Amino acid sequence: MTVVSARVPDTRVRRLALTLYGYTFLTDVVLLYPLYPLLFSDTGLSVGQISSLFVLWSATSIAMEVPSGALADAVSRRLLLRFAPLLAGAAFAIWVFLPSYPAFAVGFVLWGAGGALSSGSLEALVYTELDRLGAAGRYARTMGRARTAGVVGALVAAALAGPVLALGGYPAVGVASVLVCLLASLAAGRFPEHRRSPADAGDPADAGDSADRADGGDPADEGPELGWAASLRAGLAEARADGAVRAAVVLVAVVAAVWGALDEFVPLLIRETGVPAAAVPALVALVLAGVTVGGLLAPLGERLGAAGNAALLAASAVALALGAGAGHPAGLVLVAAALGGFQLATVLADARLQSRITGPSRATVTSLAGMATDLTLMAVYAGYAVVATAGGHRWAFVAAAIPYLAVAGVPLAARLRRRTRSARLANH
Q1: Residues with Cβ within 8 Å of residue 399, at least 6 apart in sequence
Q2: Which residue of 106, 166, 312, 406 is surrounded by the most CB atoms within 10 Å?
């Protein structure tokens, strides 16, 4: 009997992890992702119209981020994760079969709403379930591998999008994208969740949870204690009153947003090094490989303390500045290493935030970090445009290293002060 009980947590942690990896893979293996700007252009939209759609997308995500996080604390997080890809699938169907500026605008609102529903919900569900199983220490490595699964999904989508477009045009790409969204919704139903709510009543996936409990799981589920408004107030109050939580929110926003913005401009940086257009995809794959390795290094990153995390950020920032500033294709190896380091730092910052949250509104606080990330992202886009217009993409990448050096300098300076103080006390 003791042996069975010892095996149960590992089996259930593995089930949670595999479901997470499948879900993140399916949400990113959308064939429209590398093609939708072309769809907009081929429909006749101007650059200004396309830019306005991106603004609408960002505005929707920012406006819905925190309210949807509070909703995830009040109802079933699994239910929201099942619904989110359905909204994205509806958006892609509208785009492909009713291509026009109004249809694209409606699609971006739906897609932004779906992203807001999953942001915060996913992290909160995974951390809560791992913590319930006594495996909260595995959160960073689990989410790191999940991010890697997402990158792999994007690579697969990029590889398949061209052939499918050649065979069936945008309708075929759209149908494939909608089907993948449906599969992602089905995969979300496999998430275990031990927070019951009226919205989750009758969920078929609860049968699996019942079986888990019969095999030695917790005797009862933890139900949400707060409604939507109370969850929202509790999450905002925790972030406002707890300095550690507030600092973790800011750290997530800065670490994730800067390199997240740079990621969109990597092809332009590569082209600026003088390589032929045919070589750009291969070098993009090199950079993505660095991001993938960064996610897989999360188990090693878990051993880093505050000084180690700061050193990681500083080293990655230096690699970014040197690699991009070189203006040579060989420098992209350093850029790939830098983005891999930032990916790892993002995973660790998220894990730090989750460990700091103690109140009942975990998804709300996580969504606050998501909203802060989106707002920072928009500021980075604006700053990037100014620097890139004045000096080119490589100097914009070099400038992006400065915020990371500033963030890394805070704990390193504090550690230096502590050592200096200790040395003075020892001398006296």
Answers
A1: 383, 387
A2: 312
